[in-house]
Structure formats: structure tokens, C-alpha cells
Design brief:
Elements lengths: L5 H66 L2 H8 L1 H13 L9 E6 L4 E4 L12 H7 L5 E8 L2 E12 L2 E11 L13 E7 L2 E6 L5 E8 L4 E8 L1 H53 L13 H96 L3 H13 L2 H32 L8 E3 L1 H16 L3 E7 L5 E3 L1 H17 L5 E10 L2 E8 L29 H11 L3 E7 L3 E9 L12 H7 L2
Parallel strand pairs: 11-13
Antiparallel strand pairs: 1-2, 1-5, 3-4, 4-5, 6-7, 6-9, 8-9, 10-12, 13-14, 14-16, 15-16
Helix pairs in contact: 1-5, 2-3, 5-6, 6-8, 6-12, 8-9, 9-10, 10-11
Length: 615
């Protein structure tokens, strides 16, 4: 973890505190400014859209008024009442008609909605499909404004009724291009207006803009005016204000942090540096000077005084405490090693006692079973002789036939042929069990306080029989035992070494593999060689395999004491263990035991001391 000074921590604290306060204040101010700007902008947009739509309403209203004045001319009534006689007059009259100086297509309709005359010789629309026409004909409305599509173009359709003596006579309409409604080009620099009906765009004014949008709906016509105002200029001004405010706050934070850093270094860091240097000298045991307590900060001054008192006491006790600590550490390490290995040794001894007792109990029934099988084999021989003699002494044909029939009935001949094989197999099985029990007794031989005559091959064979169940599923064991001299040793301990090495060899093999066990005599040493073609030992691990508690197995699968105890046992016999290994190809453990071991070497009953002396 990276360490920092108090001055830096204080400066960072002040910076973060001020930064948090400034950030909150800035957010609130900016929020308020943005909200105020948005409210003002919305009010401005609402006023401007209201003014524009009001101008649009006036545009249509003025033209509707002029159209109503034109409809009151007598020629209109005359043309409706006598169209054939007055069509020429009507044509001359309507040719000069304008609406505010603009020539628009105008149509005169009779009381059924049929077009009598169309100005500009253009194709007149079919008004019968317009729903508002029925309202005008039924005198439900004196005039009407609608959107009409003609030749893929959209028009404002203005219609007024023509009355005579309070009777409805016809309708006068005019078609104004929809884009003519916009007469305020100077207001469209930062504004775009779209006219839509039922989601379909009819016309638009101004360039494409992105920003605030506002819509005005005319329900009587069914059109929507969508206003889009360009707010990029307002956003740029607002962003500039935010950047300036943030810069000022950042500069203020830097200045405040520098002041906090200088203050913290002068009043906190320097005194603590002196205290740290004095503590370091005290830790190293070198000479140190008393700290001066003339410090501005009261608490630090009191701390220096107490530190001076403490260092005097620590200096006096340091030597004796260090000596006691060294002794206790050494004794503690020895006790930990001794306790762990003593527990392992006691476990093995207990297992040996139990195994020897079980082997003895099994031996008794095995003895009389084998004896009974031998007697049964002799009985079978006598019965076979008896059967043969009876068959030879039968004189009459009838008695011989009766004897043959009886023999076939009970399948005597098959019994005589099969029983010897069964007895031989059973006797062989009993002998195999006897061999296993004998191996168990040999392996689990109770430890003696003195060495005894030991046959290495016998103990190794017994151990192989004991661990056969661990190895037979994935290992093929090859055994080559040369004749060896009888030596004085601790046989049960050597069996434990052989078992540890064999099990380790089997565990190093994944899938299937081979284990080679060989004994031979080399000069004055007996050599027991156990070799496998398993995973081998890594070069970095090899120097530590005999270290107590060291294991390369996963947690919970090894204690790290097997090879350590084996190493100690071989050293008890004045021998050695040599190891060669190549990672991925296998390992070879060679145990060397001198043949000239003395019978008089005692095995101390104090097991803790004996285990300690092994290392």
C-alpha cells in the first residue's frame, strides 16, 4: 500500500472537501441558470409562435373578408340564377378580381356544389368530396377554411356563401398556395416551421434546424404548425459561462490545497519526521538523542515528552528481551517439529499394534480351515478308491448296470473329476491369505527398543503386498530382489519408509505407469531402489522434499511429513537417501543402508528426543 505524508493527506482532504462543496455549488448554480434560461427561452418561443400563428390567422381572415365582399357583388347572384345568360359578364368580372394584388384560382359553385365557373381556366377541384361543403350548403356556417390537395399541391381553400333574399344560392371559393401564408421571411433565420396534417408534411419554411420545438394545433382545419428554434447560440453562451465558472473554482481549489500542504508540512510533517527518525534509531539499536519538545502543537509536544521517557525504558530492556526471545523461538521451533513427528509416529505405532492383533486373530481360523481342507482331500482319495473297488468286485451284469445307473444319476464321475481342482484352488486361496496375513504381521511388527535381525527383502515384499491395493489399478510393479545379508535394524521403521516411497511413486503416476523395485548390495551398503515413470519433481522443488511440512500436493491431500520422517529413519540407520528426477519422465529414490550396523545401537524410549535428533 502506498504511503503518503500528512501534509499531502491534509491538502488532499482540503482539496476534496472544497471540490465537493464547489461541485455541489456549481451544479446548483448551473442547474438554476439552465432552468432560468430554459424558462425564458420557452416564454420567448411561446410569444414568438403565438405572434406568428396570430399573423397566419390574420392572413387567412383578411383574405376571407375580401372574398366575402366579392361574393356580395350582384353579378355573382345573377350568374347563379341565370348562368348561361350571364357567363360572359361573370368571366369579365372575375378576370379583374384580385386578393390583395394576387391572382388566385377562384371557383363559383351553385347551391348543389357544382362548379359554374373557374378562374384562370384551370381544372377545378371536385368539391363534392369535401365534408365542409355540406355544412355550408345546409347554412350551418357562413364561411370555411380548409386544406385542399390539387395536382399534388396543397392550397388554402377559402369558401363563403352567396345569399339572395336570405336564400342560399351558391359558394365562392379561392385557392391560395399553402406556402403563401408565410410573409415573415426575416424571422426564419433561426427558425424552421413545418405544416403537417395527420402526420403528413404539407409545407415547411426556413432551413433545417435542431433545438427547441413547439407545436400549435388548429382543430377547425386539422393542421399542426411545428416550430423548431435554433438554440445553438444560447447553448454556446451557457457553455462558456460554465467553463469560466469551473476554471475559477479549479484555480481556487489549487490555491487552497497549496496553502493546506505548506501548513501541514510545517506544523505536522516536520515534527513527525523527527519522531520517525528517532524511532528508526531506536529500532536499529543505535545511539539516539532526546527529542526537543518546544513544538507549537500541544499534543505533539506531549507526545515527544512521553517518547523520550519510553525510549529510556526500552533501551534498558532491549538486550535481555532479545536474548529471551531468541531462546524461546528456538525451543518453540523444536517443539513444533517434535510434536508433529511424534503424532505421526504414534499413529503408525497404533496401526501396527492393531494390524498385528488382527493378523493373529485371522491366523487361527485360517489354520484349521487349511487343516480341514487337507483332511477333506485325503477323504476324497479314500472315497475314490472305495468306488473303484466296488466297481471291480461286482460280478453280475445286473449289479454292474445298477451301479453304472446310480453313478450317472448322482454324477459321481464328474464330482470325482471336479473336487480335486476345487480343493486345490481352495487350499491355494487359503495359502494366499496366509501369505498376506504373514506380510501384514511382518509390516506391522511392533517396534522394539533395540535393533533386531532384519531381512530387507522380506520387509519389502510384505510392504509390496500391503500397498498392492493402492498400486494395482494404474501401476505395473516390476520387482527384482537380489540375495541380501541379514542386518540389524528397526524393521517396522524401514517398512514405513518403503511404504511412503511406494505410495509417493504411485501418486506421481496419472493414468497408467510402471514402478521398478530393485535391491542389491553395493560394496558395504544395501541399496533399495524405487523408480517410477510418473510426473517427476520440478528442479525448484527437489531441494525441499525432505523439509518437514513441505508438500507440493493440494491442500488437504498431504501433511509434508512422509519424506521427512523417512529421511530421519534412514539417518537413524546411518544411511542416506539419494534422489534423481526429471520433470515429466519420473523419479528414482535410492536408499543406502550400511551392512555393518551395530546391534548395540539403542532406540531411546523418549520419542520426542529421538525425533529431534533425526534433523
Amino acid at each position: 500500500m502506498k504511503k503518503i505524508s500528512i501534509s499531502f493527506a491534509l491538502a488532499r482532504f482540503v482539496f476534496l472537501s472544497c471540490f465537493a462543496l464547489a461541485l455541489i455549488s456549481t451544479v446548483l448554480v448551473i442547474n438554476y441558470a439552465v432552468d432560468s434560461a430554459q424558462r425564458q427561452q420557452e416564454q420567448l418561443i411561446k410569444r414568438e409562435t403565438t405572434a406568428i400563428t396570430h399573423g397566419y390567422r390574420l392572413f387567412l381572415k383578411h383574405r376571407l373578408t375580401l372574398l366575402a365582399d366579392q361574393a356580395k357583388n350582384p353579378i355573382m347572384v345573377q350568374a347563379l340564377m341565370q348562368p348561361e345568360a350571364n357567363i360572359g359578364k361573370l368571366q369579365d368580372f372575375m378576370a379583374d378580381l384580385t386578393i390583395l394584388g394576387h391572382q388566385y384560382q377562384q371557383n363559383l359553385l351553385d347551391f348543389e356544389g357544382n362548379v359554374i365557373y373557374s378562374k384562370q381556366d384551370k381544372k377545378a377541384p371536385d368539391y363534392h368530396n369535401e365534408p365542409w361543403l355540406k355544412d355550408i350548403i345546409n347554412d350551418e356556417a357562413p364561411n370555411h377554411i380548409a386544406i385542399l390537395k390539387l395536382n399534388d399541391n396543397y392550397f388554402w381553400c377559402l369558401a363563403v356563401i352567396i345569399m339572395y333574399n336570405n336564400n342560399f344560392e351558391g359558394v365562392l371559393t379561392t385557392l391560395i398556395p399553402i406556402e403563401d401564408i408565410d410573409e415573415q421571411d426575416e424571422k426564419l433565420d433561426s427558425l424552421m416551421i413545418k405544416i403537417t396534417r395527420n402526420g403528413e408534411e404539407l409545407s415547411s419554411f426556413g432551413q433545417e434546424r435542431h433545438g427547441k420545438q413547439h407545436s400549435v394545433y388548429w382543430p377547425n382545419i386539422g393542421v399542426v404548425f411545428s416550430f423548431t428554434f435554433d438554440d445553438s447560440a444560447n447553448n454556446e453562451e451557457l457553455n462558456d459561462a460554465i467553463i469560466k465558472l469551473s476554471t475559477l473554482i479549479l484555480l481556487a481549489l489549487i490555491a487552497t490545497s497549496l496553502l493546506a500542504y505548506v501548513f501541514g508540512y510545517r506544523y505536522f510533517v516536520k515534527p513527525l519526521l523527527l519522531l520517525s527518525q528517532a524511532t528508526s534509531k531506536l529500532h536499529k539499536g543505535s545511539e539516539f538523542e532526546l527529542l526537543q519538545d518546544n513544538i507549537t502543537i500541544k499534543e505533539l509536544s506531549e507526545l515527544f515528552q512521553k517518547f523520550n521517557v519510553m525510549t529510556n525504558k526500552v533501551h534498558q530492556r532491549e538486550s535481555s528481551l532479545k536474548l529471551s526471545y531468541d531462546k524461546l523461538s528456538k525451543v518453540n521451533d523444536e517443539l513444533i517439529l517434535s510434536e508433529s513427528q511424534l503424532i505421526q509416529s504414534e499413529k503408525m505405532a497404533s496401526i501396527g499394534v492393531l494390524a498385528a492383533g488382527v493378523a493373529h486373530e485371522i491366523n487361527n481360523p485360517l489354520g484349521f480351515v487349511k487343516s480341514n481342507l487337507d483332511v477333506l482331500n485325503e477323504y476324497l482319495t479314500d472315497i475314490q478308491k472305495y468306488h473303484q473297488e466296488i466297481n471291480e468286485h461286482l460280478t453280475t451284469e445286473a449289479s454292474k448296470e445298477w451301479h453304472v445307473a446310480l453313478t450317472k444319476k448322482y454324477d459321481i464321475e464328474f464330482i470325482f473329476e471336479d473336487m480335486p481342482a476345487l480343493l486345490t484352488s481352495s487350499i491355494g486361496g487359503v495359502e494366499k491369505i496366509t501369505e498376506i496375513v504373514q506380510s501384514l504381521k511382518t509390516f506391522a511388527r511392533i517396534e522394539e527398543s533395540t535393533k533386531s535381525k532384519t531381512d530387507i527383502n522380506e520387509g519389502l515384499t510384505a510392504t509390496l503386498n500391503m500397498v498392492n491395493n493402492e498400486l494395482k489399478y494404474n501401476c505395473e510393479v516390476h520387482v527384482e530382489l537380489d540375495p541380501l545379508p541379514i542386518i540389524y535394524a528397526y524393521p517396522s521403521k524401514l517398512n514405513q519408509v518403503f511404504m511412503n516411497l511406494l505410495i509417493n511413486a504411485g501418486q506421481s503416476i496419472t493414468g497408467s505407469g510402471e514402478i521398478f523395485v530393485r535391491t542389491f548390495q553395493k560394496e558395504t551398503d544395501i541399496v533399495i531402489e524405487i523408480k517410477d515413470n510418473g510426473s517427476g519433481i520440478a528442479p525448484g522443488v527437489l531441494p525441499h522434499i525432505f523439509t518437514p511440512f513441505f508438500t507440493s500436493k493440494p491442500v488437504g491431500q498431504g501433511t509434508g511429513l512422509g519424506l521427512s520422517i523417512s529421511h530421519g529413519i534412514i539417518k537413524q540407520h546411518d544411511g542416506r537417501i539419494e534422489v534423481t528426477s526429471e520433470e515429466g519422465k519420473g523419479s528414482c529414490f535410492s536408499v543406502y543402508i550400511p551392512t555393518n550396523l551395530s546391534k548395540k545401537t539403542k532406540y531411546s524410549s523418549n520419542k520426542i528426543e529421538s525425533v529431534k535428533n533425526n534433523f
